[in-house]
Amino acid sequence: MKVSIIAFTDNGMEIAYKLSNSLSESNDVDFTRCGKGALSTWTEEHFSTNDALIFIGAIGIALRAIAPYIKTKTKDPAVVVVDELGQFSIPILSGHIGGANELALQIAEDLGSIPVITTATDINNVFAVDTWAKSQGLNILNPECIKLVSSKLLKGESVHVKSDYPIQGNLPKNVYLNDLEDSNAGYDVIITHKDLENERKNDTLLLVPQIITVGIGCRKDISFEAIESSILNILESENYHILAINALASIDKKANEKGILEFAKKYDLPFNTYSAEELNSLEGEFTKSEFVKSVVEVDNVCERSAIMESNGKLIRRKDTCDGAGVTVALAINDPNISWGK
Amino acid sequence: MKVSIIAFTDNGMEIAYKLSNSLSESNDVDFTRCGKGALSTWTEEHFSTNDALIFIGAIGIALRAIAPYIKTKTKDPAVVVVDELGQFSIPILSGHIGGANELALQIAEDLGSIPVITTATDINNVFAVDTWAKSQGLNILNPECIKLVSSKLLKGESVHVKSDYPIQGNLPKNVYLNDLEDSNAGYDVIITHKDLENERKNDTLLLVPQIITVGIGCRKDISFEAIESSILNILESENYHILAINALASIDKKANEKGILEFAKKYDLPFNTYSAEELNSLEGEFTKSEFVKSVVEVDNVCERSAIMESNGKLIRRKDTCDGAGVTVALAINDPNISWGK
Fold it and tell me: Same domain for A204 and A231?
């Protein structure tokens, strides 16, 4: 986690120094002393690039500094305030998804301060679906529905979860799994890599595991547009959500293929490539092409690289994308989800 | 103080109800339960019109709700968050000037919760110049300088205050009064009704007591522009700050004079009027006019009404404002300032 600390006084700097030592065991930490007029600049620079900001000082100062940059629960960094005597450690933004509650608890332990946790699910010891989703690597599609789930649990009502995958461990209190009729109706939470955005009810929380890997083959100097429309068309035809993609893969000869690199950047996905030798080492049934083999010495690029990257199984074999000069295959992994954090 | 409370859950509503009872002894209190999507509307409506907002819930929810409306330390309402178990009472905005720290302490006492005060001067038991200025009715002209004063005191350095008025009580630790050479140089804080905005150093905190009363006489249907330029010109010629004005006064025949009412509204000043009988009852030397007496049965309107309103002494006698149809006089009161709150 990239953590930046800012302090305003000598006392504050002592705390910043102590925290920097303890937190840097498992984080990338820097700390700074705020000069005259420098707070807004520092905040603007660090808010969008950091995972967490720690202000050693008054909550009001921190709040006024971050207010202009606040966007959304799923993107904003964790913000924790520690008073300059180190008496309190207070998560003020992104308590759950951003991890501010956890960070504040760790700081409180390091400094011997009181953690001031105010999120209702935590203080009532109730299952916090957003913290849980984050810990399980599930993308939250509609964060505005988190509060509907939390509200039911806080009132002692039942919450019904539908999952397309097994979930290990004991169910949290008042949470039920796949217990309704076999459709999506009536569920409060649905966990799936399918794209349900158009058919869902407005108050169903949708969680998407990143479990699909896209294998790509293509002509040299293929355009970004050809890559993008090919991949999106296939996802749409299978009704898979774009946020279910976890990586792109190809053969090493494509490592600098601009259209793929641009796609990877736009959708914030890793792009890994493998040598012909590695791809050939895979055993199994692949859609063979003598032409491809004559060019890159592998009988199939997209299927093999998808499997090589994911270590999963093919759910869509090679598609030539209507002759766009691109081939795409999709592989899937079983997600590893459990009720424990 | 106008206080509005919002809660999100059953637990929260119980706390809101309890708080509403205890706080309404000395405040105007209302409370509400937040419906779906109603938080931003509620916040927008209450932020600008209330002295204090209390959120019973998570800090993050309160912070995201108020962020778009935050303006400045001297205007924003106090905002206090109480978690929904009532464990903590946390001032998050306007701790000093807005009174959030004091409110949070009161709430903590009412609920038996822990007050989470994070402003450095409070937790270090150091003189807080902004809280003090507020308690003494002093307008803070340049709130960005508050932190320079607090910072010196937190470091154990001396702070030099120049005041044009006597200040009762014992000096706070490390605070010195009128101890430098007889100019404004070197002072960290200057308390005066003089307009020093152009000659001050950038890092001198300027505090202005509201002690000047403007008495006004005028022709019927006088324009707002004539009223405004007359008053501002006289203030400028005396080098008095507009924020030192505490009220406008005239004879009752002018109670509905539009130009004066518009001026009162623009500068947020009370406008009070007195009968001819009341004005005549004043003893003392006034600039007499037979013409005025023939019209309104008082020999002078502006001087008499200024004294009637302020019960102070004249510091600028009747000025005819270059024949603009307006007469203006200024009266002044001694401010009652003490170091104790």
Answer: no
> For residue B95, what are the domain limits?
2-118
Give how far the C-alpha of residue A25 lies from the chain's centroid of Cα atoms, to the nearest Å. 23
Please tell me the number of Cα atoms within 13 Å of B332 on its side-chain side: 16
Handedness of CA A136, A142, A144, A149 (dihedral sign): negative
> Which chain B residue's Cα is nearest to A94?
B60
Domain stop point among A61, A89, A118: A118
pLDDT digits over B262-291, tens only?
999 999 999 999 999 999 999 888 998 888
Nearest CB neighbour to B92, from listed A10, A60, A70: A60
DSSP-derived letter for residue A77 is P
∠ CA B195-B201-B205 to the nearest 5 degrees?
A: 70
C-alpha pair distances (Å), A77 with each of A43, A66, A80, A138, B107: 11, 10, 10, 18, 30
Of B242, B214, B210, B219, the closest CA to residue B303 belongs to B214
Angle at A111 between CA A107 and CA A116, to 5 degrees: 55
Number of domains in chain A: 3
ipTM of the complex: 0.70
Q: Do B240 and B212 touch, CB atoms closer than 8 A?
A: yes
| Contact (CB, 8 A) for B218 and B326 | yes
Apex B44 CA angle, B37 and B243, nearest 5: 170
Using the Cβ of A75 and the Cβ atoms of chain B, whether some distance falls under 8 Å is answered with no
Shared domain for A103 and A135, answered yes or no, is no
User: Do B151 and B43 belong to one domain?
Assistant: no
B119–chain A Cβ distance below 8 A for any pair: yes
Query: Model confidence over A271-296: pLDDT tens digits?
Result: 999 999 999 999 888 998 888 888 88
Cα A321-A228-A286 angle, rounded to 5 deg: 45
